[in-house]
Amino acid sequence: MTETPSINTPDVRVTLVPPRPRTRIWEIDFLRGACIVLMILDHLTMLLGMYFGPEWFGADMAGGGGAAFCRWCEWFHTSSERAVAHAVVIFIFFSISGISSSFSRSNVRRGVILAAVAMLYTGVTYAADSLFGISIRVTFGVLHCFAACILIWALVDIICRRNAIAKAVVSAAVIITAACLYYLYTPPADTPLFFAPLFGEGASGEATFFDPSKFSPGDFFPVIPYIAFFFAGTLLAPVLYPRRYSLLPFLDGKWNKPVCFIGKYSIFFYLLHVVVLAAVLMLISYLFITPGNWVLV
Hints:
mainly alpha
């Protein structure tokens, strides 16, 4: 019998190169963290301009530099400049979430957990609103909208079976449909209230079948149009990150770590920042500016 020669000879050397480990894309965490920082500053201006400023300096907020700053906060929170900046930040925030979700293999789990957190958040804000009476109820806010978008994307991912072209077509279709409904469709006045989280306000800024200020005064983010921002991220993800590596690795470094940390744990900063801001301002008010007056209590 002829012996079969072995391919494993002393002259053959096989070197296995381990695949490059996937790491977090720093610029995604950075952009998300920057959006959270801007959101915190925005809510600080709201608290100072609408609640604490009038209590500290009177309804007309007359006085020195502190009063002038509170007047600026009041102006900024209702200004067109803030409206433009708000739209840009929200687009970045939602599209970044869409990019991140396109990388994840556990979107059903992520969406369900986030939906549960959003429901808990709703319960807490309703309880706080009943105690303090300052209209902070959140019936359908940004967490609810994110949860809905992530679960819808998870369904798309399952149906398309990770077919990149099919998912791109669906993402584009969702964006176009959401834009058309937002700009061209006005729900009739007798539309049931449970459709409010879907349609919300149209391009005119008004809702015809419900009052957003009563439905969800603390925070309101209807699925349309914001799902278009989210799906813009899912559409861009395979173009910008086909191999899921950072586009700017040479800029990564210690300088971005604080903001990236906020972006990585954005859910906790979102849930806690208003409570912390309000508590700090209430303590300052009680101890120094209006002794004995907590303002919000």
